């Protein structure tokens, strides 16, 4: 049986932002058995899609190239654990990020890659299986100058890996 794959459209933080996220993650108390993504896989998800290859992948890449991304100056300023036992770091409300996400979803709907866009809460997952994790009372703000978004293929293999397919710079 072939390993499952999925496409991810997301913002991947540069090294200095990853370092800030990792330093914050190190300040938590983690329960036994939780899992943490490696630094290189930290990202803010814009959209997940079924895997597309060949002509469909090329159409997707062309669609994404037509969605203008503004430079986004984000501030990661809150963290916590959600009801599904996923621990996250979240950016402060940002109109530009929300507008970019909306434009991306419109383009994907218009080209048939998605039929609808559900609710979306921008976040970076820092750990899973985190029931009873304890986060610090304060997250020192982490500034993130997001200047590109990426299309990656997630390979659900052991070990899990991301394959960079394309990067789209901010205009």
UniProtKB/TrEMBL annotation:
Family matches, as SUPFAM superfamilies: LigT-like
Keyword presence, Transmembrane helix = no
Q: Name one GO molecular function term.
A: RNA 2',3'-cyclic 3'-phosphodiesterase activity
Keywords from UniProt, A to Z, are: Hydrolase
Against InterPro entries, the record matches this protein to: Cyclic_Pdiesterase, RNA_CPDase
| UniProt entry tagged with the keyword Hydrolase | yes
Question: What's the protein name?
Answer: RNA 2',3'-cyclic phosphodiesterase
- Species of provenance: Acidovorax cavernicola
